[in-house]
Amino acid sequence: MPRLDEPGAGDAAAPPDVSGDAGDLVRRLTDRDLTIATAESLTGGLLAATLVDVPGASAVFNGGVVAYATPVKHTVLGVDAGLLDERGPVDPQVAEQMADRVRQLCAVDGRPADVGLSTTGVAGPDWQGGHPPGTVYVAVASARGIRSVGLALDGDRPTVRRAAVAAVISAAMAELEASPADAE
């Protein structure tokens, strides 16, 4: 997926079926005894559904929050209200706070989820807060820190939503690859 700051941003082809990537992610999390949680806006639960479609996901998926309305990002996820007022929900820091906060919100027996994923952006067809359709931020939070990726995606609503899911799963895989197995 192209980043917003890369040449060719917005030239993304239709996303591939991500079920195989979701399966790989669930297997890697299982192999490392790690858990995951999701905070979603524009994907509206599609990320969580993609993960739980994988047999064995119950061993790693703690839960998720669909914070579609901007106020819910603050009241449920605890995203900074000033940040939301100043920049709106389509922002890399909003995605980062969503991914970080959902780890604690979906703690099991006092243990936060090891990995938090988030999606926020504009699926279209209309612009939102000065952002064109296809403007998406995804984030991954773990013990190593928090990272976000900005995307400029082409396509209709379903295509943008699926591409956002593919992008955040890819970011989660990259996080696991960058994190030594004995560091958890």
Describe this structure in words.
- By secondary structure, the protein is α/β, with parallel strands linked by helices.
- The protein has one domain: Maf protein (Alpha-Beta Complex), CATH 3.90.950.20.
- 38% of the residues lie in helices and 18% in strands.
- The chain has 6 helices and 5 strands, in the order αβαβαααβββα.
- The protein has a 5-stranded mixed β-sheet, with helices on both faces.
- Strand 1 (36-40), helix 2 and strand 2 form a beta-alpha-beta unit.
- 47% of the residues are buried.
- Mean pLDDT is 91; it is low at 1-14.
Concise structural overview:
With 184 residues, the chain is an alpha/beta fold. The chain has a single domain (19-179), classed as Maf protein (Alpha-Beta Complex), CATH 3.90.950.20. It is built from six helices and five strands, in the order H-E-H-E-H-H-H-E-E-E-H.
Sheet with the most strands, sense and barrel status: 5 strands, mixed
State the strand order across the main sheet. 2-1-3-4-5
Named CATH architecture:
Alpha-Beta Complex
Distance between the termini: 28 Å
Oligomeric category: single chain
Q: Determine the CATH topology.
A: Maf protein
Count the strands?
5
Low-confidence spans: 1-14
Mean pLDDT over the residues? 91
Number of helices: 6
CATH superfamily: CinA-like
How large a portion of the residues is in β-strands, by DSSP E? Answer: 15-25%
How many structural domains?
1
Write down the overall geometry: globular
Helix content: 25-40%
Structure class: alpha/beta
- Indicate the radius of gyration in whole angstroms: 15 Å
| H-E order | HEHEHHHEEEH
